Amino acid sequence: MTICTENKFNTIIFALAGILFTGCVETLITVQVFPDGRYSMSFLTKGDSTDVFDHDFPHPSGSAWTTKIEKEHVENDEIWVMKTNGIAEGAFLFTSRDDSLTALRHPIQIQRTEGFFATRYTLLNVFKGRNVYLKYPAFGKSLQESDNDSTRWLDEAFYYMCSAGIKDLQSDPETTINSDLSERVINHIHNTLARINQKNLFEELEDKQYFMDQMLRPFQHDLPTGYSTLLSHATDIYEEELELTSELKDDQFQYRVFMPGVITSTNADTISGDTLKWSFGLNEYINDDYIIEAASIVYSSQHIQTTILFAAGLLLIVLFLFYRRGK
Q1: Whose CB among 206, 280, 292, 323 lies 3.0–4.6 Å from 284's, allowing a Cys bridge?
Q2: pLDDT digits over 71-118, tens only?
Q3: CB 239 within 8 A of CB 161
Q4: How do residues 286-322 score in pLDDT, each as one tens digit?
Q5: Do 144 and 237 belong together in one domain?
Q6: Last residue of some domain: 206, 223, 243?
Q7: In Å, what is the CA distance from 175 to each residue of 183, 185, 193, 238?
Q8: Are residues 59 and 103 in the same domain?
Q9: Is 109 helix (H, G, I), strand (E, B) or coil?
């Protein structure tokens, strides 16, 4: 999917209206933690070209990562496969866009703590929650119920975009307006959207800028010149956020972890031999963070044996001294 341009809000709406349409995209993530604390990660994503390359779930990139793209033919369908492998250390932030405040982020951190008797390893990978039910509950319900009626949540989503855009403008000294006026504008937008029939709103938003101009016309003598244009641009990032969330709907993840030593704690769905396994999709982080965590320990047999020998030798010396003293 493409980001809305030229203030054509209907681009994203038509895209979102087909939430049911998208094919399932599967991503297998494998993490293997090495004894020295470094870790390898491999990503394998399968789907059609639109879903694999839409950047909703990013593979890491850079000099430390290698990516290979292949095309498979399954019956009459073309399946694209993207594979990425690399080695990292410590904390790493995966994101589709460093310059975006709304892009999906899933930071990973692996720590190695060395002690005399044992070395402990901890893994924490967070898929940041999308906060959908805090921003536009009707859209979240539509996603989870596979409801293709985009008009049911359109007013709620657009109101959130506008109010968030005004808040951003208020945080900039160059675009701030009187606080009472901003509250009046927000209330007016809410009331206006509540009065418009949802299907009519769908048509009105075909040209977002024109709709914004008309909606703020009652404040034309109170607002600075060009304020509606500023607000229209301020909502772009929140359109992107909504679009990205919708693209994640059919993404399914299989997550595998291999840790050194003995597992001491984990929230894995299943443990098979030395493999920790998680399976999840958007429903697991549609609102709150989805957290993957595991901990393991590797005991130092050499240090333990040395300590035992030292303690045994010390005990023998003490017993010998007691024996000598008693005799």
Answers
A1: 280
A2: 887 777 788 888 999 999 988 877 656 666 666 778 899 999 987 778
A3: yes
A4: 999 999 999 999 986 666 666 676 677 777 777 767 7
A5: yes
A6: 243
A7: 15, 14, 24, 18
A8: yes
A9: strand
On whether residue 8 sits in a domain, the answer given is: no
Do 259 and 123 share a domain, yes or no?
yes
Q: What share of the chain is helix, strand, coil (3-state, %, to 5)?
A: 40, 30, 30
Task: Say if residues 299 and 128 touch (Cβ distance below 8 Å).
Answer: no
* Cβ contacts of 128 within 8 Å, gap of 6 or more: 104, 105, 106, 107, 285, 289
Query: Tokens for 285?
Result: 């982080």
Q: What is the value of pTM for the model shown?
A: 0.79
Structural element, H or E, at residue 173: none
DSSP reduced 3-state for 100: coil
Answer whether 269's CB lies under 8 Å from 79's CB: no
286 lies in some domain: yes
Nearest CA among 141, 139, 108, 138 for reference residue 125: 108
> Do residues 194 and 145 both lie within one domain?
yes
**In the numeric block, which tokens belong to residue 298?**
């590797």
Q: Which domain holds residue 140?
A: 135-243
- If one counts the domains in the chain, the total is 2
Amino acid (one-letter) located at 200: N
Whether residue 215 sits in one domain with residue 141:
yes
Q: Are residues 174 and 185 in the same domain?
A: yes
Specify whether the CB–CB gap between 60 and 41 falls below 8 A.
yes
- Residue 234: how many other CB atoms lie within 10 Å: 19
| Whether 236 and 276 share a structural domain | no
Task: Write the DSSP symbol of residue 221.
Answer: T
CB contact at 8 A, 122 and 294: yes
Among 243, 264, 294, give the residue marking a domain's end. 243
User: Which tokens in the block code for residue 195?
Assistant: 């009065």
Residue 291 located in a structural domain? yes
Q: Where are the beta strands (DSSP E) in the chain?
A: 25-33, 38-47, 65-74, 77-89, 91-92, 108-114, 118-127, 251-258, 262-266, 270-272, 275-281, 290-299
Structure token digits, residue 309: 């020998």
Residue 263 lies in a domain: yes
